[in-house]
Amino acid sequence: MEWFFDGLGTAIITLIIGLLTGGTVGYRIGIKKSYKVNQKQTAGDNSSQIQVGRNYDAK
Q1: DSSP 20-31
Q2: How many CB atoms sit inside 10 A of residue 6's CB?
Q3: Rounded percentage of the chain residues whose pLDDT exceeds 90
Q4: Cα 30–Cα 36–Cα 37 angle in degrees, nearest 5
Q5: Residue 57 has pLDDT above 90, yes or no
Q6: Are 3 and 24 in contact, with CB atoms under 8 Å apart?
Q7: Which among 14, 55, 15 has a CA at the least distance from the CA of 35?
Q8: Are 37 and 57 in contact (CB under 8 A)?
Q9: Which of 21, 36, 47, 55 could be cross-linked to 43 through a Cys-Cys bond (beta carbons 3.0 to 4.6 Å apart)?
Q10: Under 8 Å CB-to-CB from 25, ≥6 apart: which residues?
Q11: Angstrom distance (rounded) from CA 10 to CA 16
Q12: Distance between CA 35 and CA 57 in Å, rounded?
């Protein structure tokens, strides 16, 4: 049974470091990925228009 606990401390330390590193990198990627859609209305008020492009909020 001793062999089971031989690498347990190393595995726990590696898990903690991996979670911290992955969380930091994921947070930075998530913050920088903000999709901004710029729209400009060229027709007058109460007119029909179509939208061209990708809808990022669609579910």
Answers
A1: HHHHHHHHHHHH
A2: 9
A3: 20
A4: 145
A5: no
A6: no
A7: 55
A8: no
A9: 47
A10: none
A11: 10
A12: 10
Are 53 and 37 spatial neighbours (Cβ–Cβ below 8 Å)? yes
Selected residue with higher pLDDT from 34 and 25: 25
- Summarize pLDDT for 21-32 with one digit per residue, the tens: 999 998 888 777
Residue with tokens 């029909």: 48
Please name the amino acid found at residue 28.
Answer: R
Instruction: Give the pLDDT score at 59.
Output: 55
Instruction: State residue 55 phi and psi, 5-degree precision.
Output: -95, 110
Report the half-sphere exposure of 7 (CA within 13 A, side-chain side): 3
- Within 8 A by CB and 6+ apart from 43, the residues are 49
